[in-house]
Structure of Cytosine/adenosine deaminase:
Amino acid sequence: MRDQRDGRRSNQVSRRSLLGGAAAAAGVAGVATGAAVVGGAATAHAVEPPSAERFRPGRPIVFRGATVVTMDDELGVLADADVLVVGTRIEAVGHALPTPPGTAVVETGGGLLTPGFVDTHRHVWQTALRGVGVEWTLAEYMERMFGRWGLAYRPEDLAAGNRMGMVEALDAGVTTVLDWSHNLRTPEHADAAVDGLLAVPARARFGIGNAFADSAGWIHGGEVDRLLDSRFPSRDQLVTPQIAYDIVPPDEELLPALRFARDRGLQWTSHGGIVGYAADETITFLADNGFLSPDITLVHGGAYGEDGYRRLADAGAFLSIAAESELNAGQGYPPSHRAREFGVRMSLSMDTVVWWSGDMFSAMRATLNADRGLAHLRAHERGEVLQSNALRSAEVLEWATMGGARALGMEAEIGSITPGKLADLVLLRTDTTVMSPLSNPVGHLVFQAGRADVDTVVVNGRVVKHRGELVGVDVAGARREVEASLEHLRAEIGDQEWEAASHG
Ligand SMILES: [Zn+2]
């Protein structure tokens, strides 16, 4: 602990000096950015060993000369800074850090280093159906996925979807995903879903759910306890469990299940606040029965009323806003403006790649677009023109990192680049066409950056992507599995229905 405190003190000094010469510091970062290639790729690539060997497990890593967007309130944004990773954790953040012998050095050349992104709601099991629902509404999704299509899933389809979905997430710098897994119709489906998550070195929260079962039988048949005992003997692992089950409509029979989750220290997430499906009754039910707490994340939430938002804020419960989903499928307007008004804690999510993208750059942009666009529209309708935007880019970046960490109860471990936390990091190139010149790191992350800029990804201290290539991840194998899964699902769905669903 002493080392961490010492590290923090040196960081504070560094930041003060930076603040004293912010313009000069930014200028240095900008020059470095323009002149160098992240990772020294242009000069060092030919003589370096392969990434898997260079970043072998247990070898410390230092990122040198980065623009570090720490998302740590005390550290802020550091120019020309280093981040040292030892074992699974961030050992130190600062300038010209001393390193242990044998440390792997990544010269970032002014690259942009951020915490790994956290997605608090993604139905990863649906990855094989990527893109088929691009024209759908929520009603069409419900009819298809929870009518016939979901029932066509074999255990291996869940495994394949989860595996490819987590590979995709890692590639985009999404280091933690709450896999909202609500097609666990048999124990075999559940085990296969876990297998798919474990096949990829990403951090996942396995949201145990079954949209096809009755609420009473689902949790008390012993299946969740079996999974906890057999697949999650420790919470100190990359994949951890919680409950993902809709309290829509509220049902007294769910009270024992909520007690079960609380007794076992499992968080709970439910969709809710959806126009035409659910208003405040989920919140009222949880509050009246003593279960509205920081352990609860409600997804979407655009249909809640003032009382609902007030109760969420008072209880410290979370919203997961999936703006791309809500704007296209019609669950309700993305409620970030309402949540900000009432002080509800927020995280962001992508929902499903059946329609949308699976990266948090898109989530941040969609959220900003929706929030600001509505404010402008309402002003115009009043005959006014806004002179400033209320929602700032830094807030949205906070929701995509620390907000997600808090919603998962992991804020002490992930979500910011803070000495002592687990090392989940994303290094973005700043020599790409959209990332140079780099003048506003947070602004670039929110409105400029994309998947192609993600150079290096670290999860739990392990390099899983470097120089734009996944490391120690069998991408071709994951693709083969998910393509075979799609073939099966399409055959089950039938050509006529598939074509109608794709283009209708
Ligand atoms: Zn969802």
Notes: Confidence is low (pLDDT under 50) at residues 1-45. The longest helix spans residues 360-381.
